[in-house]
Design a protein that fits this description.
Layout lengths: L9 H15 L12 H25 L12 H24 L12 H82 L4 H29 L7 E4 H10 L7 E5 L3 E5 L3 H15 L6 E9 L2 E8 L6 H4 L14 H10 L4 E4 L8 E7 L3 E3 L1
Parallel strand pairs: 2-4
Antiparallel strand pairs: 1-3, 3-8, 4-5, 5-7, 6-7
Helix pairs in contact: 1-2, 2-3, 4-5, 6-7, 7-9
Protein backbone atom coordinates (compact mmCIF):
# COMPACT_ATOMS: atom_id res chain seq x y z
CA UNK A 1 0.00 0.00 0.00
CA UNK A 2 1.40 3.45 -0.82
CA UNK A 3 2.63 5.71 1.96
CA UNK A 4 0.44 8.57 3.21
CA UNK A 5 1.07 11.83 1.15
CA UNK A 6 2.38 10.06 -1.89
CA UNK A 7 0.54 10.25 -5.25
CA UNK A 8 -1.50 7.09 -5.28
CA UNK A 9 -2.79 7.85 -8.83
CA UNK A 10 -0.37 9.30 -11.39
CA UNK A 11 -3.33 10.06 -13.65
CA UNK A 12 -4.80 12.35 -11.02
CA UNK A 13 -1.52 14.26 -10.84
CA UNK A 14 -1.55 14.73 -14.63
CA UNK A 15 -5.14 15.99 -14.59
CA UNK A 16 -4.36 18.35 -11.71
CA UNK A 17 -1.42 19.82 -13.62
CA UNK A 18 -3.50 20.33 -16.76
CA UNK A 19 -6.41 21.84 -14.79
CA UNK A 20 -4.02 24.25 -13.04
CA UNK A 21 -2.64 25.33 -16.41
CA UNK A 22 -6.10 25.76 -17.92
CA UNK A 23 -7.85 27.41 -14.97
CA UNK A 24 -5.06 29.37 -13.31
CA UNK A 25 -2.65 29.89 -16.18
CA UNK A 26 0.30 28.57 -14.20
CA UNK A 27 2.39 25.38 -14.15
CA UNK A 28 2.91 23.17 -11.08
CA UNK A 29 6.04 23.88 -9.08
CA UNK A 30 7.11 20.28 -9.60
CA UNK A 31 5.83 17.03 -10.96
CA UNK A 32 6.91 14.80 -8.08
CA UNK A 33 3.60 12.99 -8.10
CA UNK A 34 4.62 11.35 -11.35
CA UNK A 35 7.39 8.84 -10.88
CA UNK A 36 8.00 8.09 -14.56
CA UNK A 37 10.51 10.56 -15.98
CA UNK A 38 9.26 10.22 -19.56
CA UNK A 39 5.70 10.96 -18.49
CA UNK A 40 6.86 13.99 -16.51
CA UNK A 41 8.69 15.33 -19.55
CA UNK A 42 5.68 14.87 -21.79
CA UNK A 43 3.41 16.57 -19.21
CA UNK A 44 5.78 19.52 -18.91
CA UNK A 45 5.66 19.91 -22.70
CA UNK A 46 1.85 19.79 -22.75
CA UNK A 47 1.50 22.32 -19.91
CA UNK A 48 4.06 24.61 -21.52
CA UNK A 49 2.10 24.41 -24.80
CA UNK A 50 -1.15 25.23 -22.99
CA UNK A 51 0.39 28.22 -21.23
CA UNK A 52 2.10 29.60 -24.36
CA UNK A 53 -1.16 29.15 -26.32
CA UNK A 54 -3.00 31.02 -23.56
CA UNK A 55 -0.54 33.94 -23.75
CA UNK A 56 -0.76 33.90 -27.52
CA UNK A 57 -4.57 34.02 -27.45
CA UNK A 58 -4.55 36.75 -24.77
CA UNK A 59 -2.24 38.88 -26.91
CA UNK A 60 -4.61 38.54 -29.87
CA UNK A 61 -7.56 39.45 -27.63
CA UNK A 62 -5.72 42.65 -26.70
CA UNK A 63 -5.08 43.45 -30.38
CA UNK A 64 -1.43 42.41 -30.50
CA UNK A 65 -0.96 40.24 -33.59
CA UNK A 66 2.84 40.30 -33.63
CA UNK A 67 3.82 37.40 -31.24
CA UNK A 68 4.88 34.05 -32.65
CA UNK A 69 3.67 30.73 -31.18
CA UNK A 70 6.31 28.02 -30.87
CA UNK A 71 3.87 25.34 -29.78
CA UNK A 72 2.55 22.84 -32.29
CA UNK A 73 -0.53 20.73 -32.54
CA UNK A 74 -4.18 21.19 -33.37
CA UNK A 75 -4.90 23.96 -30.84
CA UNK A 76 -1.74 25.89 -31.70
CA UNK A 77 -2.42 25.46 -35.39
CA UNK A 78 -5.96 26.82 -35.00
CA UNK A 79 -4.67 29.85 -33.09
CA UNK A 80 -2.03 30.50 -35.71
CA UNK A 81 -4.66 30.30 -38.46
CA UNK A 82 -6.82 32.76 -36.53
CA UNK A 83 -3.85 35.11 -36.13
CA UNK A 84 -3.15 34.93 -39.87
CA UNK A 85 -6.79 35.71 -40.67
CA UNK A 86 -6.83 38.64 -38.23
CA UNK A 87 -3.59 39.99 -39.71
CA UNK A 88 -5.12 39.85 -43.20
CA UNK A 89 -8.30 41.48 -41.89
CA UNK A 90 -6.21 44.26 -40.37
CA UNK A 91 -4.47 44.78 -43.70
CA UNK A 92 -7.84 44.86 -45.47
CA UNK A 93 -9.14 47.45 -43.01
CA UNK A 94 -6.11 49.59 -43.82
CA UNK A 95 -6.82 49.25 -47.54
CA UNK A 96 -10.43 50.29 -46.98
CA UNK A 97 -9.28 53.28 -44.93
CA UNK A 98 -7.15 54.23 -47.91
CA UNK A 99 -10.19 54.14 -50.23
CA UNK A 100 -10.02 50.59 -51.61
CA UNK A 101 -13.59 49.42 -51.17
CA UNK A 102 -13.12 46.25 -53.22
CA UNK A 103 -11.90 44.31 -50.16
CA UNK A 104 -14.06 41.36 -49.09
CA UNK A 105 -13.87 38.92 -46.14
CA UNK A 106 -14.73 35.27 -46.77
CA UNK A 107 -13.56 33.33 -43.69
CA UNK A 108 -15.58 34.55 -40.68
CA UNK A 109 -19.23 33.64 -41.33
CA UNK A 110 -21.73 36.25 -40.17
CA UNK A 111 -18.95 38.75 -39.53
CA UNK A 112 -17.87 38.41 -43.16
CA UNK A 113 -21.41 39.21 -44.37
CA UNK A 114 -21.63 42.31 -42.16
CA UNK A 115 -18.11 43.43 -43.05
CA UNK A 116 -18.71 43.01 -46.78
CA UNK A 117 -22.03 44.84 -46.54
CA UNK A 118 -20.25 47.70 -44.80
CA UNK A 119 -17.54 47.99 -47.44
CA UNK A 120 -20.14 47.86 -50.23
CA UNK A 121 -22.05 50.73 -48.56
CA UNK A 122 -18.82 52.69 -48.12
CA UNK A 123 -18.08 52.15 -51.81
CA UNK A 124 -21.50 53.52 -52.79
CA UNK A 125 -21.14 56.50 -50.49
CA UNK A 126 -17.62 57.19 -51.78
CA UNK A 127 -18.82 57.04 -55.39
CA UNK A 128 -21.70 59.40 -54.62
CA UNK A 129 -19.39 61.77 -52.74
CA UNK A 130 -16.92 61.71 -55.62
CA UNK A 131 -19.72 62.49 -58.09
CA UNK A 132 -20.95 65.39 -56.00
CA UNK A 133 -17.44 66.73 -55.51
CA UNK A 134 -16.87 66.62 -59.28
CA UNK A 135 -20.16 68.41 -59.87
CA UNK A 136 -19.10 71.03 -57.32
CA UNK A 137 -15.70 71.43 -58.98
CA UNK A 138 -17.33 71.77 -62.40
CA UNK A 139 -19.78 74.33 -61.04
CA UNK A 140 -16.97 76.29 -59.35
CA UNK A 141 -14.92 76.28 -62.54
CA UNK A 142 -17.90 77.46 -64.57
CA UNK A 143 -18.64 80.19 -62.02
CA UNK A 144 -14.99 81.24 -61.98
CA UNK A 145 -15.00 81.54 -65.77
CA UNK A 146 -18.25 83.51 -65.73
CA UNK A 147 -16.99 85.81 -62.98
CA UNK A 148 -13.71 86.38 -64.82
CA UNK A 149 -15.55 87.13 -68.05
CA UNK A 150 -17.99 89.43 -66.23
CA UNK A 151 -15.13 91.29 -64.53
CA UNK A 152 -13.35 91.59 -67.87
CA UNK A 153 -16.49 93.00 -69.47
CA UNK A 154 -16.89 95.45 -66.60
CA UNK A 155 -13.32 96.65 -67.05
CA UNK A 156 -13.84 96.94 -70.79
CA UNK A 157 -17.09 98.89 -70.30
CA UNK A 158 -15.47 101.28 -67.83
CA UNK A 159 -12.47 101.74 -70.13
CA UNK A 160 -14.70 102.25 -73.17
CA UNK A 161 -16.83 104.82 -71.33
CA UNK A 162 -13.74 106.74 -70.26
CA UNK A 163 -12.34 106.69 -73.77
CA UNK A 164 -15.62 107.75 -75.34
CA UNK A 165 -15.91 110.58 -72.83
CA UNK A 166 -12.41 111.71 -73.68
CA UNK A 167 -13.12 111.38 -77.40
CA UNK A 168 -16.29 113.45 -77.12
CA UNK A 169 -14.49 116.20 -75.21
CA UNK A 170 -11.46 116.32 -77.51
CA UNK A 171 -13.45 116.09 -80.73
CA UNK A 172 -15.87 118.81 -79.62
CA UNK A 173 -12.96 121.05 -78.71
CA UNK A 174 -11.11 120.42 -81.99
CA UNK A 175 -14.16 120.94 -84.18
CA UNK A 176 -15.13 124.08 -82.26
CA UNK A 177 -11.69 125.54 -82.92
CA UNK A 178 -11.91 124.69 -86.61
CA UNK A 179 -15.40 126.22 -86.85
CA UNK A 180 -14.08 129.42 -85.28
CA UNK A 181 -11.33 129.50 -87.88
CA UNK A 182 -13.88 128.80 -90.62
CA UNK A 183 -16.05 131.66 -89.35
CA UNK A 184 -13.06 133.98 -89.38
CA UNK A 185 -12.35 133.14 -93.04
CA UNK A 186 -16.01 133.77 -93.91
CA UNK A 187 -15.80 137.21 -92.27
CA UNK A 188 -12.65 137.93 -94.27
CA UNK A 189 -14.44 136.90 -97.47
CA UNK A 190 -17.21 139.40 -96.74
CA UNK A 191 -14.60 142.10 -96.29
CA UNK A 192 -12.84 141.18 -99.55
CA UNK A 193 -15.84 140.20 -101.66
CA UNK A 194 -14.55 142.27 -104.63
CA UNK A 195 -11.06 140.74 -104.65
CA UNK A 196 -11.31 137.33 -106.39
CA UNK A 197 -7.63 136.54 -106.00
CA UNK A 198 -7.89 136.97 -102.23
CA UNK A 199 -11.13 134.99 -102.05
CA UNK A 200 -9.51 132.02 -103.74
CA UNK A 201 -6.94 131.74 -100.94
CA UNK A 202 -9.66 131.93 -98.32
CA UNK A 203 -11.68 129.25 -100.11
CA UNK A 204 -8.67 126.92 -100.20
CA UNK A 205 -8.13 127.43 -96.48
CA UNK A 206 -11.82 126.78 -95.80
CA UNK A 207 -11.68 123.58 -97.87
CA UNK A 208 -8.67 122.41 -95.86
CA UNK A 209 -10.55 123.11 -92.61
CA UNK A 210 -13.57 121.15 -93.86
CA UNK A 211 -11.27 118.26 -94.78
CA UNK A 212 -9.83 118.24 -91.25
CA UNK A 213 -13.30 118.35 -89.69
CA UNK A 214 -14.41 115.47 -91.90
CA UNK A 215 -11.34 113.48 -90.83
CA UNK A 216 -12.14 114.13 -87.16
CA UNK A 217 -15.71 112.95 -87.65
CA UNK A 218 -14.47 109.79 -89.39
CA UNK A 219 -12.02 109.21 -86.55
CA UNK A 220 -14.85 109.56 -84.02
CA UNK A 221 -16.95 107.08 -86.00
CA UNK A 222 -14.16 104.50 -85.96
CA UNK A 223 -13.43 105.13 -82.28
CA UNK A 224 -17.08 104.63 -81.32
CA UNK A 225 -16.92 101.10 -82.72
CA UNK A 226 -14.24 100.11 -80.20
CA UNK A 227 -15.57 97.96 -77.37
CA UNK A 228 -19.17 97.94 -78.59
CA UNK A 229 -19.25 94.16 -78.95
CA UNK A 230 -17.99 91.59 -76.49
CA UNK A 231 -14.50 90.19 -77.18
CA UNK A 232 -14.37 86.82 -78.94
CA UNK A 233 -11.79 84.21 -79.91
CA UNK A 234 -10.20 85.40 -83.17
CA UNK A 235 -8.37 82.95 -85.44
CA UNK A 236 -5.08 84.66 -86.26
CA UNK A 237 -4.62 82.67 -89.48
CA UNK A 238 -8.07 83.74 -90.73
CA UNK A 239 -7.37 87.39 -89.87
CA UNK A 240 -4.09 87.38 -91.79
CA UNK A 241 -5.62 85.58 -94.76
CA UNK A 242 -8.39 88.19 -94.94
CA UNK A 243 -5.89 91.05 -94.71
CA UNK A 244 -3.75 89.50 -97.43
CA UNK A 245 -6.65 89.22 -99.89
CA UNK A 246 -7.68 92.83 -99.19
CA UNK A 247 -4.30 94.42 -99.95
CA UNK A 248 -2.14 94.72 -103.05
CA UNK A 249 1.23 93.18 -102.19
CA UNK A 250 2.61 93.31 -105.72
CA UNK A 251 6.13 91.89 -105.72
CA UNK A 252 6.37 91.97 -101.92
CA UNK A 253 6.47 88.44 -100.52
CA UNK A 254 4.13 87.77 -97.60
CA UNK A 255 5.06 84.99 -95.16
CA UNK A 256 2.77 84.19 -92.20
CA UNK A 257 3.28 81.56 -89.50
CA UNK A 258 0.43 82.06 -86.99
CA UNK A 259 1.09 78.69 -85.34
CA UNK A 260 -2.59 77.85 -84.85
CA UNK A 261 -3.04 80.71 -82.38
CA UNK A 262 -6.40 82.17 -81.40
CA UNK A 263 -6.60 85.53 -79.61
CA UNK A 264 -9.35 86.70 -77.25
CA UNK A 265 -9.91 90.31 -78.31
CA UNK A 266 -12.27 92.88 -79.77
CA UNK A 267 -13.48 92.02 -83.26
CA UNK A 268 -11.66 95.11 -84.53
CA UNK A 269 -8.35 93.27 -84.01
CA UNK A 270 -8.69 92.24 -87.66
CA UNK A 271 -8.45 95.92 -88.55
CA UNK A 272 -5.31 96.24 -86.42
CA UNK A 273 -3.39 93.66 -88.43
CA UNK A 274 -4.81 95.03 -91.68
CA UNK A 275 -3.50 98.45 -90.67
CA UNK A 276 -0.04 97.11 -89.81
CA UNK A 277 0.25 95.38 -93.20
CA UNK A 278 -1.18 98.40 -95.00
CA UNK A 279 1.37 100.70 -93.31
CA UNK A 280 4.22 98.39 -94.29
CA UNK A 281 3.11 98.44 -97.94
CA UNK A 282 2.64 102.23 -97.91
CA UNK A 283 5.82 103.29 -96.17
CA UNK A 284 8.22 100.37 -96.58
CA UNK A 285 9.74 101.95 -99.68
CA UNK A 286 10.65 100.49 -103.08
CA UNK A 287 13.47 98.39 -101.62
CA UNK A 288 11.11 96.37 -99.42
CA UNK A 289 10.71 92.78 -100.65
CA UNK A 290 9.22 90.88 -97.70
CA UNK A 291 6.70 91.10 -94.86
CA UNK A 292 6.77 88.33 -92.25
CA UNK A 293 4.38 87.54 -89.38
CA UNK A 294 5.24 84.98 -86.70
CA UNK A 295 3.61 83.94 -83.42
CA UNK A 296 5.44 82.29 -80.55
CA UNK A 297 5.11 82.00 -76.77
CA UNK A 298 7.36 83.88 -74.37
CA UNK A 299 7.38 84.42 -70.58
CA UNK A 300 5.14 87.48 -71.13
CA UNK A 301 2.60 85.61 -73.26
CA UNK A 302 2.06 85.19 -76.99
CA UNK A 303 4.26 87.45 -79.14
CA UNK A 304 3.00 88.20 -82.64
CA UNK A 305 5.75 89.86 -84.68
CA UNK A 306 4.92 91.86 -87.82
CA UNK A 307 8.23 92.61 -89.55
CA UNK A 308 9.36 93.90 -92.93
CA UNK A 309 12.73 94.64 -94.58
CA UNK A 310 11.79 98.11 -95.76
CA UNK A 311 12.81 101.62 -94.72
CA UNK A 312 11.76 101.22 -91.09
CA UNK A 313 10.58 103.91 -88.67
CA UNK A 314 12.71 107.01 -88.16
CA UNK A 315 14.01 107.49 -84.62
CA UNK A 316 12.30 110.89 -84.30
CA UNK A 317 8.94 109.28 -85.11
CA UNK A 318 9.09 106.37 -82.65
CA UNK A 319 7.92 108.28 -79.56
CA UNK A 320 4.80 109.71 -81.24
CA UNK A 321 4.09 106.70 -83.45
CA UNK A 322 1.00 105.69 -81.42
CA UNK A 323 -0.29 109.18 -80.62
CA UNK A 324 -3.55 110.46 -82.03
CA UNK A 325 -3.29 112.29 -85.33
CA UNK A 326 0.23 111.14 -86.16
CA UNK A 327 0.93 109.77 -89.62
CA UNK A 328 0.53 110.59 -93.25
CA UNK A 329 -2.61 108.55 -93.84
CA UNK A 330 -6.04 109.40 -92.40
CA UNK A 331 -7.12 105.77 -92.03
CA UNK A 332 -7.56 103.60 -88.94
CA UNK A 333 -4.16 104.53 -87.54
CA UNK A 334 -1.78 103.13 -84.97
CA UNK A 335 -3.44 105.13 -82.19
CA UNK A 336 -6.74 103.34 -82.71
CA UNK A 337 -4.87 100.05 -83.13
CA UNK A 338 -3.38 100.42 -79.68
CA UNK A 339 -6.75 101.39 -78.23
CA UNK A 340 -8.42 98.26 -79.66
CA UNK A 341 -5.70 95.98 -78.31
CA UNK A 342 -5.70 97.58 -74.86
CA UNK A 343 -9.33 96.58 -74.27
CA UNK A 344 -8.20 93.02 -73.49
CA UNK A 345 -4.75 93.84 -72.09
CA UNK A 346 -2.83 93.39 -75.35
CA UNK A 347 0.11 95.71 -75.97
CA UNK A 348 1.91 96.85 -79.11
CA UNK A 349 5.40 98.30 -79.56
CA UNK A 350 7.73 99.10 -82.46
CA UNK A 351 11.21 97.57 -82.13
CA UNK A 352 12.71 97.92 -85.60
CA UNK A 353 15.81 99.81 -86.70
CA UNK A 354 15.70 102.66 -89.23
CA UNK A 355 16.94 101.39 -92.56
CA UNK A 356 16.49 97.74 -91.60
CA UNK A 357 12.71 97.58 -91.57
CA UNK A 358 9.81 98.07 -89.16
CA UNK A 359 9.16 95.48 -86.47
CA UNK A 360 5.94 95.58 -84.45
CA UNK A 361 5.55 93.32 -81.42
CA UNK A 362 1.97 92.54 -80.34
CA UNK A 363 2.04 90.88 -76.90
CA UNK A 364 -1.03 88.92 -75.83
CA UNK A 365 -1.06 88.17 -72.07
CA UNK A 366 -1.46 84.64 -70.74
CA UNK A 367 -5.08 83.53 -70.60
CA UNK A 368 -5.95 85.69 -73.62
CA UNK A 369 -4.74 83.22 -76.23
CA UNK A 370 -4.94 79.53 -77.01
CA UNK A 371 -3.91 77.08 -79.74
CA UNK A 372 -6.22 75.02 -81.89
Amino acid sequence: MPEKGSAADPGAAVLAAIEQALHEGTAPEDYTGIADAATRQRLETVVSGILSSQQFALAMAEGNLSPDLAATGYLAGSLKALQSSLRHLTWQAGQIAGGDYSQRVRFMGEFSASFNSMTAQLAREAAERSRREQELRDTNEALSREIAEYQQLQRMLALTNRKLGLLSSVTRHDISNKLLALGAYIDLMHENVHQPEVLEGYLNSEAEILKIINGQIQFARDYEDIGIKEPVWNDLAAILAEAYTGLAFGKVRFDAAPGGAEIFADLLIAKVFYNLLDNALRYGGPAMTEIRITAEESPEGLCVIVQDNGAGVAEEDKEQLFTRGFGKNTGFGLFLSREVLSLTGITIAEEGSPGSGARFRVTVPKGQYRFR
